[in-house]
Amino acid sequence: MSEQIKDANELARASAAPVATAPEPPAGPANPILVADYLVAGYLPGVNILNGCNLTVGEGELVGIIGPNGAGKSTLLKSLFGLVNVRSGTVTLGGEDITNMKANHLVARGVGFVPQNNNVFPSLTIEENMRMGVFLKPQLFEERWEYVVDVFPKLADRRNQRAGQLSGGERQMVAMGRALMMRPSVLLLDEPSAGLSPALQDEAFIRTRMINKTGVSIIMVEQNARRCLQICDRGYVLDQGKDAHVGPGRELLNDPKVIGLYLGTLATDVENESKSRRRLK
Ligand SMILES: Nc1ncnc2c1ncn2[C@@H]1O[C@H](COP(=O)(O)OP(=O)(O)OP(=O)(O)O)[C@@H](O)[C@H]1O
User: Fold this and answer.
1) For a tag on the chain, would you pick the N or C end, based on fewer CB atoms within 10 A?
2) Is ligand 1 within 6 A of the CB of residue 43?
3) What is the ipTM of this complex?
4) Distance 152 CA to ligand 1 centre (A)
5) Ligand 1, atom 6: nearest CA belongs to which residue?
6) Does the keyword Hydrolase apply (predicted)?
7) Ligand 1 geometric centre to CA of 74 (Å)
8) Each residue of 204-263: pLDDT tens digit?
9) Distance CA 129, CA 18 (A)
10) 181 CB under 6 A from ligand 1?
11) Ligand 1 within 6 A of 72 CB?
């Protein structure tokens, strides 16, 4: 057999042989809009809270972030919004590098952020809060006000009431409404259901989905992990500053590792709570 034919035979055998391949990473969104790539970030010198964290949100996607206390969920949102210094890694918006860009520039580029606390101006009325939201482009006020009160009709009824006099749920509506005034393409929500009664939590999730359905991409950090995974398109489980598990919300809900580590605890908590309620009766 000639050398050439031997080589050709070896090549054919090699290409027919099964090749060991790494498992496919979970499919990301078709049209990524905001991408965080291997972020390392923290508050104090030498102490990293994010340790190589990745996150992608696609156009029109609702992404949920869950994880144990102190995992770095809020820090991740703040890093995306220029409020915590990113030490390495990149954040891109529509393909453009926005790493460590200041929050006011990000708002002008279509990123909105609703922090968990102190998220309204208490001495201003609802309308004045909304005007603050659009101070970079006051000409947008009327059009955006119509959009916001379509999502939160209660705000129209209370237009002249001071935000400080509102309930927790109503204040949350004002905070989300204000962030929506600048017509964001991406909205970052830090625990929109925190401190609300179960009925109001449900309402917050429904409104969040409604906003998302109008075309706004949303990244939502949530303590109510089950409810969050039920409504989001994809979820991230953060652990020790890294994206430990990623996948469609409903897949994560049924993933034994996620149930064991993060959701199991919550289910037991719920069970214990109802047991102790029964004992009290
Ligand atoms: N301003 C800050 N200065 C120093 N350390 C901070 C600051 N804010 C948060 N941390 C620390 O960063 C870590 C992660 O906090 P972070 O709030 O991001 O976690 P989380 O996952 O959102 O937790 P939780 O679910 O309890 O809100 C914690 O150890 C926290 O103490």
Assistant:
1) C
2) yes
3) 0.97
4) 30
5) 43
6) no
7) 7
8) 999 999 999 999 999 999 999 999 999 999 999 999 999 999 999 999 999 988 888 777
9) 63
10) no
11) yes
More confident: 275 or 103: 103
Q: What is the pLDDT of residues 110-145, one digit of tens each?
A: 999 999 888 899 999 999 999 999 988 899 999 999
CA of 76 relative to ligand 1 center, distance in Å: 10
Residue 44 structure tokens: 């104090």
Contact of 252 with 235, CB cutoff 8 Å = yes
Strand ordering across the sheet containing 86-93: 50-58, 32-41, 86-93, 96-97
Contact, 190 vs 202, CB < 8 A?
no
Q: What is the DSSP secondary structure assignment for residue 22, as one 8-state letter?
A: P
Instruction: Provide the residue ranges of all domains of the chain, joining segments of one domain with +.
Output: 28-109+231-281
Q: pLDDT at position 135, please?
A: 86
Distance between Cα 163 and ligand 1 center (Å): 27
Task: Kindly report the CATH number that applies to the domain delimited by 28-109+231-281.
Answer: 3.40.50.300
Q: Which of 53, 74, 243 to mutate to test the pocket of ligand 1 (most atoms within 8 A of CB)?
A: 74
Q: Which two tokens stand for residue 79?
A: 């890093």
Q: For ligand 1, atom 27, which residue shows the shortest CA distance? A: 69
